[in-house]
Amino acid sequence: MNVHVSTLDEKTRSSLAIESHSETEEYFINMGPQHPSTHGVLRLILKLDGETVREVIPVLGYIHRSIEKISEYSTYRQIVHLTDRMDYLSAIMNNWAVARTVEKAAEIETNERIESIRTIVSELERIHSHQLGWGVLGMDMGAFTPFLYGFRDREMITDILEETIGARLTMNYIQPGGVMFDIHPDFVRKVKEYLAYFKPKLDEYEDLLSGNPILQQRLRNVGIMDAETALSMGATGPVLRASRVPYDLRKIEPYGMYGEVEFRVAIGTAGDCWDRYYVRIEEMRQSMRIIEQLIDNIPEGKFLLKKPAAKLTIPEGRHYSQIETARGVLGFYIVSEGKETPYRAYFRTPNFHNLWSLTAMAPGGRVGDLVAIISSLDLVIPDIDR
Amino acid sequence: MESEELFQYIASLEAAARPSEKPSDLPTIEVPPEHFLSLMQQLREDPRLYFNMLQVHTAVDWVKKGIFELLYQLYSTKDRQSLRVLVELPRENPVIASVCSIWRIAEWQEREVYDFFGVLYEGHPDLRRLFLEDDWKGFPMRKDYEDDFMLEPGQ
Amino acid sequence: MDMLDFFPSSILQAADTSWQTVTIAQRASSAFRDHDLSGTIGYLLLGLLFTAGLLTVLGLVLIYAERKLAGHFQCRLGPMRVGWHGILQSAADGLKLLLKEDIVPENADKLLHLGAPVLSLMATVLTLAILPLSPTLQVVDLNIGVIYVTAVTSLGVLAILIAGWSSNNKWSLLGAMRAGAQIISYELSATLSLLVMVLLSGSLQLSEIIQSQSDGWWIWKSHLVGVIAFVTFLISTTAELNRTPFDLPEGESELTGGFHTEYSGLRFAFFFLAEFVNMFVASALIVTLFFGGWMPFYIGGWDGFNSIMGLIPPGIWFAGKSAFFIFLLMWFRWTFPRLRIDQLMSLEWKILLPVGFINIFLAALIVLFEWHF
Amino acid sequence: MGFVNFESAKESSMDFGGLPVEVVEAPRGAPSNTVLGTLPNIRKVLFSLFKGMSITLRYLLHPSTVVTQQYPENRNELKMFDRYRARLKFTYNEAREHHCTGCLICEMVCPNASIIIHNRKGPVTGKKEIDHFLWRWDICTFCNACVVACPHNALEMTGNFESAVYDRRLLIYNLNAYAGPPANALKKIEDPEERKKAMEARDVYCEFTPMAGASLPGIAPLAEKKEQD
Question: What's the DSSP call for residue A220?
């Protein structure tokens, strides 16, 4: 059997050789790795016909740090802090994915206090991630102001988290068997104050961007992906939910305290950029609902049940569990040989899978549409490259 | 579906597929590479199973046993069923059929596995490295991979 | 020679609707006729200095204003470090841009690449010369002023096209092509709105257009046509200025910088300066055509009010009115997202242009039957 | 221009693989792309444009909403949270005695080897004690694993985040103020002279740190010595 292995050069050349039906000449243009709207170091090779995108070839690896390979040499507790550096906007949820897999595999019990704290901080983080996503979408659409409004409100959440956790971005908070610190005495009060502050601000967000007819024109019926394609493309999170698939792990396979709180899954109807945008807005509302239900009755108990210095091994076998982060399903797959370090660790990251759907949505649109699609996917590049 | 029932049903579809005895936390089946593609096709298209999401595809390098263990984790939105499919390939000349035509995300995942493990996918429309440069030597996630910049474990 | 009292009189004199315009050029020629050589040269130099000074001052002030306003629109402070509340920020920026290396891409068309920013700035300076800032503060008052303005401002698009083409960068080229399509399209409806005002006022001369508004600004006394013309003109000048929501030629998040991607240092500063001064030119035109130029704001019958308004010098009136429209443009920029290229084109060709044609027809009817006030 | 009405976001229930899921749908007005289709909506379109502009104007007119912090100017007022993790330090009691026993647990749990410990045999006690506790600020990820893992509470993270230096070798610190046994071991030494002898002073940059001329793997020594902060 002989399998042909291609190269990027060959790919672009063969792509250009496909005869186009238009009379104009098609050309390639490099979008990234340094481009304002690729949100980091994503490189897209675009085949354009004038302004119309014919093909998108993503080129990855500009920020690959071999987290999986490093994980093979790290203890399970050390892996947790590596996950901060994947999707840095849902760092706590990434920590939780590892902690949950390890807890499930090593049969570590947690108490309700731990799960409540985890749920609350994760939802706070989801809100701030979506705030940033909202602002960045505005910026990509040419409105710079929302970006700073989003950052302003996000800053307050990072302040609240900083007071409890001691870090603003790379949290390393959720540990196997608990959380690293107990919540700060001011935490509950500040979260409540924040929710009271942010609710009117969210309506303001809507007035500023959602209500703007220009933005609606830019997002509606752009980058449409139906449910079948979205599932086949492996999209998860808001991207999949916008295509009218209510696949939200918080509802489908409840973990933490999600089984005990009331909230609704935000879905879209057509699967276009507008739906993806609005699903995030609606998720902020639902996250606030979740926090409101939990914040007043965090049960008493210990916050860390397993000593951080104690040996932590996982029984031999294959272990997988997944978490709904702000961008989709983060799965952590461990192949263990019963040692302190995994034999193989694999992260099923949401952005890596969501990015692929770009290649299905972008062709046929304009360059401006492509920018809209990228920002509606809300990509975090280090999560793609790991 | 209970896992026993699931295994029986899958066995009725493809006789070569058998429940895995390897320790695993999800219903797991193993299939030899030559029956792999037809099994996957049926898993996707069979109206009772309808696994329409390929959630995870990755490989594990069992260097001592001389095999690659390929993992396909499927999910069905029809009845929220998960299934793990394991395929073992020899480390020398690891070739397997591509499932790109069944799940489009496989195109992406298979390129990653090729990039890091060197598993070749037959029928993949655009098999090339995903993260690394085209002229990279070797496959870094293999356990016996070495290059000049690597630190010894523990250093 | 009356140069010594030129400035006090032109700046401080109270406004009067019956003022006759005496431009600097007219003063120079009358001095020439009087065989006053020093006066002639003095007025000519004054005209030059006035244009250059206006350019510099506008550049410094507008860039600072934009940054400060943007800051406060966005809950920030804006520049704070250089001078009191960052007041010297634009001067410091200018200095920085002067000292920066002037990078020319290797495969760029050198001559065109270097020439484009100059052309862009030149188009701007040429329009500055005919703006009637006050009855005395006008360098030259052409009798075809409106046509001159449209002709000269469209040189700017040539500069952008040249810049994009010569940079040898695909992003620049995309930006330039967008600019070409956009500015030429929007020029149509801008000119149509201008024509409405020309029809109403019966003159192409800017000073006469202002004089025609001595009994009321056109925006009030032209029924709906003036308002429609004003809205179309506002939209289409925003598009011509490449400002959000029509900033596609630069479109930072799409084209990394558009036509000026490859420019740095002083040449970039030229484009930047031209953009900001163009903003003033556009506002000044709006003020001249629709809002009575340097005419004070009078309300019929309110004599006390009117006399107080009349005390404010015409130059201040003009500057204040222009400042409001500059503020409006900045306000647009820091609130709205941008359109897509095809939406932009359909807005022009499907909405603004038909509206403009209907409007000019209506305006003709109004003028024909003298329905306006 | 079709216009989306926000009132139309509706709540309903959906079935997902046999599981009823409560959902809320994104609003979706009927889009119309013709010119005439715009006219019925023109009032709403203009109104929503003005609404957006009124928001930005409100912020412009209320300077109290400004959130900018003028960083270098506000250094004196700037207070970091107690738990802020920026710089690793030894904890000391009132007598400036540390609690580190040199047990190497922190070195073990450190994910990227930013802690390097050199122990020695104590000249007075004759037992194992800390000689140099090297911490590499340049590669530390502030994961706090060492602090929580330490069985003697000998380490803490403090809020001094200003780490900018001109040479990254200056970021390699010797954390212990003296080489010697921890506080509770010092307690057992009765004679103050002996106790003084057991505590050998250590500089922030000394011996094993590259500043003193010795070198760590991959780091060349720096000739000059930086002022101790």
Answer: T
- Domain membership of residue B37 (yes or no) is yes
User: Residue B102 is encoded by which pair of tokens?
Assistant: 């069944």
Outline which parts of chain A fall under CATH 1.10.645.10.
67-385
Q: Is residue B151 one of the residues assigned to a domain?
A: no
CB atoms C251 and A152 under 8 Å: no
User: Is B105 among the domain residues?
Assistant: no
Yes or no: say if A236 and A279 are a contact pair by the CB < 8 Å rule. no
- A67-385, what's its fold? Cytochrome-c3 Hydrogenase; chain B (1.10.645)
What ipTM, to 2 d.p.?
0.84
- Domain range holding D98? 88-215
- Closest partner residue to B127 (CB to CB) among A6, A247, A353 is A6
Residues of chain B in contact with residue A254, where contact means CB-CB under 8 angstroms, are none
Determine the structural domain holding residue B23 and report its residue range.
3-93
C247, burial (CB in 10 Å: exposed 0-12, middle 13-18, buried 19+): buried
- Does the predicted model carry a pTM greater than 0.95? no
D59 to chain C: closest CA residue: C73
Interface membership of C69 toward A (CB under 8 Å): no
How many residues are there in chain C? 373
Cβ of B95 within 8 Å of Cβ of A3? The answer is yes
The residue in chain B having the minimum alpha-carbon distance to the alpha carbon of residue A101 is: B25
Each residue's pLDDT, cut to its tens digit, for chain D (229 residues) gives: 456 666 666 888 888 877 888 888 888 766 555 555 566 677 777 888 888 888 888 888 888 888 888 888 888 888 888 888 888 888 888 878 888 888 888 888 888 888 888 888 877 777 888 888 888 888 888 888 888 888 888 888 888 888 887 777 778 888 888 887 887 877 777 777 877 777 777 777 766 665 554 555 555 555 555 444 4
Verify C-B touch: 3 or more CB pairs within 8 A.
no
The yes-or-no reply on A/C contact (3 CB pairs or more, < 8 Å) is: yes
A134 chain-C contacts, CB cut-off 8 A: none
Confirm if B60 and B86 have CB atoms less than 8 A apart.
Answer: no
Distances (CA, A) of A282 to A191, A242, B130: 19, 11, 35
CATH code of residue B62: 3.30.460.80
- With contact defined as 3+ CB pairs under 8 Å, the chains touching C are A, D
Q: Is D228 a member of any domain?
A: no
B104 lies in some domain: no
